[in-house]
Amino acid sequence: MADSEVRISKIAGMIGMENYSDLYTNYGDYLTVEQVATYLAVSENLVYTLLKKRRLKGRKIGRAWRIPKARIVEYLET
Question: In terms of C-beta distances under 8 Å and separation of at least 24 residues, what long-range contacts does 68-71 make, across chains too?
């Protein structure tokens, strides 16, 4: 696991399930790469890498990625 992924795992542990309410109240059903990067406090390049390696699941619509909120929570909990 890369250093940045370890950092995300640590953040997920600190966040706790109750703090996902921020994710569910401040964002729509699907997030852009930019929104995911902001929420996780990582670079957009890391989000693209996670999508490419299928560690984070999303859909490509045209040239843009959309990531469902449930997939972000799923990723944080694994």
Answer: 68/29, 68/30, 68/31, 69/23, 69/24, 69/27, 69/29, 69/30, 69/31
CA-CA distance, 61 to 38, in Å (whole number)?
A: 20
What is the rounded distance in angstroms from the CA atom of residue 35 to the CA atom of residue 1? 23
Other C-beta atoms lying within 10 Å of the C-beta of residue 36: 27
The CA distance from 42 to 26, in Å, is 18
Task: Convert the pLDDT of each residue in 37-46 to its tens digit.
Answer: 999 999 999 9
The H or E element that residue 56 is part of is none
User: pTM score, two decimals?
Assistant: 0.74
